Amino acid sequence: MDDPQIESLNAMEVLDSRGNPTLRVEILLSDGTHEVALVPSGASKGKYEALELRDGVKGRYGGRGVLVAVDNVNEVIKPVLLNRSPFDQNDIDTVLIDLDGTRDKSNLGANATLGVSLAVARVAAASRHIPLYKYLSRDPSDKAIMPVPMLNVINGGRHAHGSGDVQEFMIVPAGFSSFKEALRCGAEVYQSLKRILEQKGYSTNLGDEGGFAPALGSNEAAIEILIHAIGVAGYSTEKHCFIALDIAATELFQGNQYVMNQGQTHYSKEELIDYYSSLVKSYPIISIEDGLEEDDWDGWTMLTKALGSEIQIVGDDLFTTNKSRILEGSEKLAANALLTKFNQIGTLTETFQAVEIAQAENWGVIISHRSGETEDTTIADLAVATRAGQIKAGAPCRSERVAKYNRLLKIEDELGADSEYAGTAIYNK
């Protein structure tokens, strides 16, 4: 019997978690299977990311509409993919890349190509009656690895204006034997943190990723209140739950200096690296993301030399899920971990290529959401399929974040003894 083919493919404009437009792509196969994918959007973006195509019409959604990208799916991509098998993801994604014809997806838009790429994978898995993580897995015979959640429980920077310099203060419940228990720890610490903030008179308003956005006065104050919350919840920062930071340093870079504390403190890159070193010595920090701006290769090499033997040095804006930049980073010893966001590059195939390069270098890999999210849970399956071992999906709050964690709970339950939790193995390499 011949494989089913793509019978219908349609995109429409919907809203993300910030109330901004994004794409919903639905595919119907000739066997009656249909699936949907939704595309996330970032606020803090690296300049080397593939282009998220926006309409720019000021009188409509403030210029942020995506009707041009929708039309690109329905009028340019759809005619080429109709009657094609969905089961060769590389072939489909190559067609999308060739149709766009640009380095940064600026013709069709990375939001258009990604929506189609994700929908194809989802409908192919559904047609085969297998979970998406198994369909995408490069070696489904291996025991599955459940990722460590990195939960952004205090938001700052571009994700919560007025709350602090560091964009994300995360808790990392690595010291457990299952994802289920790790997530329970994360949720309990989150609730503990809320009570402590309320007791101290701080705001418990939420940032874009579900974390709290209090005006705590300093980065150290935020770290210390997290340590307190971990202890009040009944956990240890030596055994159970650790801390990670996403500095988003490009956002702080002004005129060859890093400006923090509402403009009161200025750091050179050497001084900033020394500052990070002092934080790592003083607190249970196991990962720093985007510690320097995205073009400072020499600074990144210095940072990795200074701290890379102790903690994860994670490149996000530095790499933007782009294999050529990851290879350059490897050559320059500029990091030891990769943050992966599939909308930075625009197709699943290119996302896998980025992950495989990082894993070949024995780097850590983190599969990540964006600050503008949807109910789509593909990144949960992708984290398991790639054996990444780590996932960022925000705080254990807001349905667009919790959907990813609930999906991982379901995957772990399905796999049972055929899975293991990445846990401290990730951070004790």
Determine the strand fraction and express it as a percent band: 15-25%
> What is the share of helical residues?
25-40%
CATH homologous superfamily caption of the largest domain:
Enolase-like C-terminal domain
Largest sheet composition: 8 strands, mixed, barrel
User: Any idea of the CATH class of the largest domain?
Assistant: Alpha Beta
What overall geometry do the principal axes of the alpha carbons give? Answer: globular
What's the overall average pLDDT, rounded? Answer: 95
Q: Please list the strands of the largest sheet in the order they lie side by side.
A: 5-6-7-11-12-13-14-15
Total E-strand runs: 16
Describe the structure.
This protein folds into two domains: 124 residues, 2-Layer Sandwich (Enolase-like, domain 1), CATH 3.30.390.10; 282 residues, Alpha-Beta Barrel (TIM Barrel), CATH 3.20.20. Helices cover 37% and strands 18% of the residues. The strands form four sheets. It has an eight-stranded mixed barrel, surrounded by six helices. A three-stranded antiparallel sheet has the order 1-2-3. Helix 11 links the parallel strand 14 and strand 15. Helix 1 packs across helix 2 and helix 11 packs across helix 12. The model has no long low-confidence stretch (mean pLDDT 95).
Task: Present the secondary structure layout.
Blueprint: E1 6-15, E2 21-29, E3 34-38, H1 67-81, H2 89-100, H3 110-128, H4 132-136, E4 144-146, E5 148-155, E6 168-172, H5 179-199, H6 219-232, E7 242-246, E8 253-254, E9 257-260, E10 265-267, H7 269-282, E11 285-289, H8 297-307, E12 312-315, H9 323-331, E13 337-340, H10 348-360, E14 364-368, H11 378-385, E15 390-392, H12 399-415, E16 419-421
Parallel strand pairs: 4-16, 5-15, 7-11, 11-12, 12-13, 13-14, 14-15
Antiparallel strand pairs: 1-2, 2-3, 5-6, 6-7, 8-9, 9-10
Helix pairs in contact: 1-2, 1-3, 2-3, 5-6, 7-8, 9-10, 11-12
